[in-house]
Amino acid sequence: xxxxxxxxxxxxxxxxxxxxxxxxxxxxxxxxxxxxxxxxxxxxxxxxxxxxxxxxxxxxxxxxxxxxxxxxxxxxxxxxxxxxxxxxxxxxxxxxxxxxxxxxxxxxxxxxxxxxxxxxxxxxxxxxxxxxxxxxxxxxxxxxxxxxxxxxxxxxxxxxxxx
Length: 163
Prior knowledge:
Elements: H1 10-35, H2 44-49, E1 52-54, E2 70-80, E3 83-94, E4 97-105, H3 109-126, H4 146-161
């Protein structure tokens, strides 16, 4: 083999390009699949236009249930050093148990950072508990005030879901 002879790189480029394309397509499919189950979550415009909304999927419930099954959404408010803040909350209830919760950040700056910290951990503390559980957490992932927004929204959701 003689030095300085150009190598044929066509095959490695074709293989690498094909792998890249396949990886991108698989990632896009996975992302689309994971978001397809979130059709009942409210968007920012829904929550900003009202402080309390009901978002479908009510099913029949047993006579012993205190709350109707379904997905409910509300906007919760709380005081922070920067003023009144808001947190969008969507809760799915099944037989008086919270089976899913999602949040929409409504604040920016420092409050928004604390909301993000809260959101990253709160679902683990809330899902699986009854609607009437004590959610008065002193701090969630360093956010001590954001939980008041969740409690405020949950109070509205309880009113909406009352059986």
